[in-house]
Design brief:
This protein is mainly α. The protein has 11 helices and no strands. Helix 7 runs antiparallel to helix 8 and helix 8 packs parallel to helix 10. The longest helix is centred in the C-terminal third of the chain and has 17 residues, at 130-146. The protein starts with a helix and ends with a helix.
Length: 180
């Protein structure tokens, strides 16, 4: 099962690149440019944090995202990424707390998807607790209603479907069909 999960993202990404949704996503403004226009130093810190994440330095990434937020407190992208870094560093409860707080001011599809992603991250690669899986399912379904063709939302929706016990094949099918 873990091997199949590892293949999901690359396959979905490839399908996305050739889909109409891929063309639409390419036209969206990227958050890094928006942040750099507001605060060039914060933009540089965000790139450094993203690099730390790519190198699996989750604690370092979380610290750098926190520095971005010191400079630009309302930058939701950094908050969502910091929460994921915290979750990957083993601080899942704190990551959920961060995203719950963000939901009070930003309940966008991106924030709902980020929270769903953390909720399905069970301890030691185990399945998430049933209540968390159900909450993640509801969050990602709401996000899909708002952003039905966004790659990351679709990827997380598929992962939520595979993380449910039993698996939510209708959610998985919805995500895959959006690519086709």
């Amino acid at each position: 099962m873990d091997r199949a999960r590892g293949l999901v993202a690359p396959v979905l990404a490839l399908l996305f690149l050739v889909s109409p949704a891929g063309a639409r996503a390419a036209s969206h403004a990227d958050p890094e440019s928006l942040l750099t226009a507001r605060d060039p130093m914060a933009g540089r810190l965000l790139l450094d944090a993203d690099s730390a994440m790519a190198h699996e330095d989750y604690r370092g990434a979380a610290e750098l995202y926190a520095r971005v937020l010191q400079r630009v407190p309302d930058f939701g992208t950094a908050t969502r990424r910091m929460a994921w870094a915290q979750a990957m560093a083993g601080n899942r409860p704190y990551a959920i707390e961060i995203l719950d707080a963000l939901m009070a001011t930003d309940s966008s599809a991106w924030t709902r998807t980020a929270l769903a992603r953390v909720l399905i991250l069970g301890p030691a690669n185990a399945y998430p607790p049933p209540g968390d899986a159900a909450a993640a399912n509801a969050l990602v379904r709401d996000a899909l209603a708002e952003e039905p063709n966004e790659l990351w939302v679709l990827e997380v929706a598929f992962n939520v479907g595979t993380s449910s016990q039993p698996q939510d094949t209708s959610l998985m099918r919805t995500a895959v069909n959006a690519y086709l």
